[in-house]
Amino acid sequence: MTETASTSAGTTGAQPGLKIERVFSTEGTHPYDEITWERRDVVQTNWKTGETVFEQRGVEFPDFWSVNASTIVTTKYFRGAVGTPERETGLKQLIDRVVGKYVEAGVANGYFETDTDAEVFEHEMTWLLVHQYFSFNSPVWFNVGTKSPQQVSACFILSVDDSMDSILNWYKEEGFIFKGGSGAGLNLSRIRSSKELLSSGGTASGPVSFMRGADASAGTIKSGGATRRAAKMVVLDVDHPDIEEFVETKWREEDKIRALRDAGFDMDLGGKDITSVQYQNANNSVRVTDEFMRAVEDGTEFGLRARKTGEVIETVDARQLFRKISEAAWACADPGLQYDDTINDWHTNPETGRITASNPCSEYMSLDNSSCNLASLNLLKFLKDDDTFDAELFVKATELIITAMDISICFADFPTEAIGATTRDYRQLGIGYANLGALLMAMGLGYDSDGGRSMAATITSLMTGTSYRRSAELAGIVGPYTGYARNAEAHNRVMRKHQAANDTVRTMHVADATVHKAATAEWAKVVELGKVNGFRNAQASVLAPTGTIGFMMDCDTTGIEPDFSLVKFKKLVGGGSMQIVNQTIPRALKKLGYDEEKIEAIVAYIAEHGHVVDAPGLKPEHYEVFDTAMGERALAPMGHVKMMAACQPFLSGAISKTVNLPESATVEEIEDIYLQSWKLGLKATAIYRDNCKVGQPLSDGGGKAKKDAESAGRGASEASLETKDVQVVEKVVYAPTRKRLPKSRTSRTTSFTVGGAEGYMISGAHDDGELGEIFLKLGKQGSTLAGVMDAFSIAVSIGLQYGVPLETYVSKFTNLRFEPAGLTDDPDVRMSQSIMDYIFRRLALDYMSFEQRSMLGIYSAEERQRHLETGSYEPIEETGSAAELMEDSSVGRVAEARNEPSRIETSDASAGRGASEASLETKEATIDPAASHDSEGHNERSVPATPAKTAHTSAELLEQITGHAVDSPLCMTCGTKMRPAGSCYVCEGCGSTSGCS
Description:
three-stranded antiparallel beta sheet; 30 helices; RNR_2_N; TSCPD_dom; cobalt
């Protein structure tokens, strides 16, 4: 795409500038004129309260941008007060504001050979952005080209020394960064431990005590913020004498949350009592060394060192400390691990200082008091029609984007002078990508497969190799970074390490072999050009969460993540929404050799079940292609670790990603993940065990109760604690035991009419025929009545599962009198005094024995007729169990009653909050064989859903379809359930994130 005007040896400014080649845009035509634009109304509401939280009408976007993308960009990135002339009204204004500033700064700083090259650069950047090929990180869209400070960085690393001045300055600097909506990380290991003396003779407070003040500050700023929560990372070295106290901080607080919750305090996320709990606003990580990890392997002792003198003041058993770290992570997901020697072995600036910390999401690792601006490519845009990756086009886009990112440092503002100085001297960049999971699926490659890892590794290598090659070219034009001279040998050594890692990649097919060949060529240029010109940037690449910007690019998957689920929740132009099957699935099936008829059948199956297991005609060996982060075919934890290990050698920084574990995972499994991550060369690892957090509204109550029982005392699994010789006084508490329904069970659907009001009842039973759940739906009901009926169904279902006899409910609810009442269409219950009266009479007839019913005076039509004929209600003979009778019953009455096509109704268990707590989730899905089409003309197999609990995001939709809870917090802005994005969470409804992406 670009080439330098000269290749002579590089003194600063020796070359005249970049010659920009036109690749994406069309000469003589502005990128905006090539596409169709339309006006949309953006109205955003909080679905819980019904309150309109944002409204702007008539905004202009390309017709191929999704409603979700345009909504998030309008609400998050448009500047100016709504309703004033200063408010931006369309995407053109937003892109022109940002790109214009980049071009202006590029010209002013000598990046382009001629004005024509600057114009081509402007058109190429505009084309890539409007066509969603890449996006800058959020601060660029917030600030660039406005009257605000030109803040472009999302990631910050601070430093703190062992003095009160430094500690108080830490509080201040962190507060300013949070105020701007960004996040910061730092290492507290320079602060003396609580086991060391002060110069005055007293004992030091220790870093954990100072964490309390910083946590309170972050919590206060978070509660007053308008854009994003305060994201922060706190790191402590494993040889710090206070390491055990640090490891236990959040662990102890989780016990406190549990105790306060059980005592009746409001400990949910955002609850009025949660502020009494400490250390909840930071991610904690332990910085471990190779020495420590080898001691863990060998079972030897490890020394904890004084901060001032470096002498060993205490020794600990390395395995016991490692065990404690893993137990804490099991109990509350903190701390994660950062592998110090691996990080600094790939450090390009060791002569300046060691890398001691990271940003909150762990992808940016560099010098203290530094920052990094990010940009991410949409990988799916580079997939060609023949399902191969367009390496040539990817190179062209990467070198253009890395040029723009470097230009941004020329005009950027920074929150502190120290951060500004370090960033301008070392010019750290963080190019990355999104949509890897969707790309691999579309190519027919499993995420957890050698082919998938090889493809990901070669793409990552090509991206970073191209970035450093362009960095070397820029160094020949505008000079290397200021700190390069003192670090030249180390920087070039790391480049050779990247090149050597690229040489070890073993390709698996033609597609990745082509990309690998291009990457090999780029790394050869990097090494040669670097010797001559040096480099413009100390760092080039990271893999960030890409939360909000992922939605801006209409990506199916974020960062390095696999696909979240096989079904998606899509907003429609003009309002409304629809459930669709991922559009990469038909493409993947075609790539795997399936014909259109089989593809349609498989997609219809996925629409109903949310997974591919037992899909008609799908070969089992192809299941792995459709594995996802959640659901029936969820990826194994080591699948995540291996993918990170495949890509890590080709990144300047690290990877924002959390290894998700099921609730049943043991401490030993966490130990193994941490150990294998070190051996595989990762720079950092974080884990999250499902349901391990108490102080936020997550997953189902059953899981929480189970967790509480398992984690009594310290919160660890049966295998997680060593037996200790202590006397325990147990308090015996008698409590009911919940009898959960099996995942697959027999259910009965009954349509009924009471006094002219139509309704439907779905009842599910245990294997022995005992009733375990009910769901009620009334025709033409309003939202309030729907909610009341859902709540009533949940309450009854929970009671049934905890052992409340059905006859108790029948005795309480029969003979209730209220409208509608009167004649029914049920021959067994001809008259009913209310809907409740009918429901429980019908349940009694279906699930109670004759003896039980007769005590309540409830008989079937046949029994009443027998009484007239013989004087006795008793049947001559009953055959078959209740479960067998149910199997013979008419289950599909609703479809017949409504006369609707192919309506399938099933009852499933263990969905998310609400219905999940009753192990009740009802799915209604009309499978329309005639596919709809989206605005791009893509064939979409739609599944308009009317579930028991209305879904508002893909996370909630996945809960309803699969019956498995998604362990994520609720969005503080719009109330919907967020979904994981790297080591953060992102909201599909409004684009809010819980981190610094």
